[in-house]
């Protein structure tokens, strides 16, 4: 049976609030340079302000359990706002009912992720031995700059290796693999339909429906300029604190390259939280959606309120690649349904 992504929107079972973040991304805007975030403290404060205003406008949602979710670079945004709420709830009259967070292919801990790139890319066949040596040398250089808090130098080294945002030509990754896409190991270029949404959002009837007037839709390039130093900074201590007190789901698409499952596990093995000891000794379990399924949906490692999931057949943009498995995963997590297959 062939499913379309729209067959499994998370809005089917959950009340969803989507935020264009940081300020200046999408249809969010600022008319002042000072309005742009330069670090995760700025991001957290802006998000908190937006959430408080939302709950005042729609108080019927304020009493619901509240979960924060995000993917990729939101691996920083989500722990930042969660930690901010966690810190302010005890001292504020208005309390956000934070219940947990979910992070997908999360760029939470750049230093540890960068330290694993060369080996991972070599072992999946994207680098040869000589290329691996160069990649490892440059990654070590990047980590050295991170430890010295030379954030811009670290960003520049990583950019030349992977992203190619500031380089005159392609990045090293693009030169040696011939691929411009590092979101799915099976896709050398980004699928055309992933660029459709900006055109869709520019349609007059859509603009009217979401009340954005004539505002330009920003792809985030301007926002990134202000966050370049933030790119290589970690929010691991904030995430560890959240893991100590709330439900946490950390998931990866099995086919992701840029924040691969193995790199996330590399980071998790260095985490210092109350479940660290148990996590290192807990085995993955097979996850199937239905008992009759021949296909395995993924693998789960669970310690108390912490769930780590690897989703088979999915890349960095996981709900796009695996809509049904993503839908099943988030609902099992939110509603505490466990990971046993359903019986038909």
Q: Which percent range fits the helix content?
A: 40-55%
Shape verdict: globular
| Computed structural class | alpha/beta
Computed Rg:
20 Å
What is the succession of H and E elements?
A: HEHEHHHHHHHHEHHEEEHH
**Unreliable parts:** none
Number of helices: 14
Q: What is the average per-residue confidence, as pLDDT, rounded to a whole number?
A: 94
Strand content: 5-15%
Largest sheet entry: 6 strands, mixed
Distance between the termini: 16 Å
Identify the strand order in the major beta sheet.
1-2-3-6-5-4
The overall strand count is 6
Describe the structure.
- With about 350 residues, the protein is α/β, with parallel strands linked by helices.
- About 40% of the residues lie in helices and about 10% in strands.
- The chain has 14 helices and six strands.
- It has helices spanning about 40-55, 75-90, 110-125, 130-145, 150-165, 170-175, 195-200, 205-210, 220-225, 235-245, 260-270, 275-280, 320, 325-335; strands spanning about 65-70, 100-105, 245-255, 285, 300-305, 305-310.
- A six-stranded mixed β-sheet has the order 1-2-3-6-5-4, with helices on both faces.
- Strand 1, helix 2 (about 75-90) and strand 2 (about 100-105) form a beta-alpha-beta unit.
- Helix 4 packs antiparallel against helix 5.
């Amino acid at each position: 049976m062939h499913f379309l992504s729209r067959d499994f929107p998370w809005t089917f079972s959950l009340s969803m609030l989507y935020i264009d973040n940081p300020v200046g991304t999408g249809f969010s805007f600022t008319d002042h340079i000072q309005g742009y975030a330069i670090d995760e403290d700025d991001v957290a404060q802006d998000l908190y302000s937006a959430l408080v205003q939302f709950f005042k406008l729609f108080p019927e949602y304020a009493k619901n359990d509240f979960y924060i979710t995000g993917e990729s670079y939101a691996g920083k945004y989500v722990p930042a706002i969660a930690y901010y709420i966690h810190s302010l709830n005890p001292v504020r009259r208005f309390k956000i009912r934070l219940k947990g967070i979910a992070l997908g292919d999360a760029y939470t801990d750049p230093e540890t992720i960068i330290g694993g790139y060369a080996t991972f890319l070599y072992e999946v066949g994207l680098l040869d031995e000589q290329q691996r040596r160069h990649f490892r040398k440059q990654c070590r250089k990047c980590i050295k700059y991170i430890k010295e808090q030379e954030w811009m130098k670290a960003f520049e080294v990583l950019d030349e290796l992977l992203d190619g945002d500031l380089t005159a030509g392609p990045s090293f990754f693009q030169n040696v693999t011939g691929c411009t896409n590092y979101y799915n190991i099976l896709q050398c270029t980004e699928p055309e339909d992933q660029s459709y949404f900006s055109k869709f959002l520019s349609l007059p009837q859509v603009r009217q429906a979401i009340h954005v007037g004539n505002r330009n839709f920003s792809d985030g390039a301007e926002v990134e300029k202000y966050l370049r130093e933030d790119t290589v900074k970690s929010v691991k201590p904030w995430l560890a604190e959240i893991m100590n007190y709330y439900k946490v789901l950390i998931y990866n698409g099995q086919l992701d390259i840029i924040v691969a499952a193995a790199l996330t596990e590399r980071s998790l093995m260095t985490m210092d939280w109350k479940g660290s000891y148990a996590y290192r000794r807990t085995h993955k379990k097979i996850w199937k959606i239905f008992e009759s399924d021949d296909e395995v949906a993924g693998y789960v490692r669970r310690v108390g309120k912490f769930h780590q999931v690897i989703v088979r057949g999915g890349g960095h943009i996981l709900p796009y690649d695996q809509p049904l498995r993503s839908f099943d995963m988030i609902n099992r997590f939110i509603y505490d349904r466990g990971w046993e297959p359903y019986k038909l």
